[in-house]
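Take a minute with the sequence and C-alpha cells given here and flag any C-alpha cell that looks odd. Thanks in advance.
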Amino acid sequence: MSTNLLSTSIATGFGGVVQEYFWNWENQQLRVVYETLGKGSPLLLLPSFSSVSTRLEVGELAKLLAPNFQVVAIDWPGFGESSRPSLNYRPEIYQQFLEDFVKAVFNTPITVVAAGHAASYVLQLAVKSTAFSKIVLLAPTWRGPLPTMGASQQIAGIVRGLVRSPILGQALYKLNTTQSFLSLMYRRHVFTDAAKITPSFIEKKWHTTQQPGARFASAAFVTGNLDAVHEQSDFLELVQSLTVPLMVVIGESSPPKSREEMNALVVLPGVRSVVISGSLGLHEEYPAVVLEAVQDFLFSSEN
C-alpha cells in the first residue's frame, strides 16, 4: 500500500493536492484518489455514499475549513475517481479501507467530518480504535434507499443482481441515472433550494454516474449492501460506546424516516446537535452554514 502524487487530476478537484492511495483487497489492487488542502491540524472529510458520490460534494466545505485545518477528502472505493471494479461491495470492504487509509495517511488521532452513510463506518472505527479525536456527522444515515422504502433483503438482493448483470444491468442502471431522474431525486430529498439544481449541476452529477464500472458500488448502496448496521439499536449502541466527542448536524427538511433516525440519535446523552437549513445534501448545499454550526465544536479543546 502506498501513496503517490496525482498531478493529472488537479483540474478535476477543488484546488488541493490530489494524490492516489493504492490499497489491496482480496489480492486486487484498488486505486483510491484523495485530495489535501490547507495547513493545520489534520481533518478527514468523508463524502456520503450515493450514486453520485465524489469528494467534490464536500469540496466547498473543504475550502472553508482549509484556513484552519489540513483537510483530506476522499473518493470512496467504487466511487468518484477511485477504482470501480466489479467487486461484491459490502461493509467489510469499507471498514477495512477506512482503517487502513487512516493508518497510512495520519500518525495521530484526527478530527473526522462524515456525511450521510459514512457515519456507521466512522463510528465503528472510533469504537474499535483511537483513530479519531472528534467526530462530526452531517445528516447521518445507516440504512440504504431500498430498505428505507421497505424492500426486504431478498428483493434488494434480486435488484442488486439484476443491476450487476452485463446487459440488462447496464440498461437498468442508465434508466435510473438519467439527468431527469437525478434532478427528481435532488429535489425530493437532497437539496431544498430548487434554484441550485441547475442543468449544469445535474450534468456534472450525471457524468459521475457514467464512468466505467460505476453501477457496481452504486447498486450496493441503493440496495442496502453497504449498510454497516441493520438495526437502529445497533447504530445507537455504537454512539453510546464512543469515548470521543460527537456532534450531529441535521437538515430541517430531511425525509421523515431519516429525520426520525437522526432524532433518536441526538437525544442520547453526550451528543451535541444542531438543526440547520437543508436535507440529506446539506453539506454540499449549505457548506458555510455547516461550518458556522460546527466551528465552536471543532475549535474547542474540551474532550
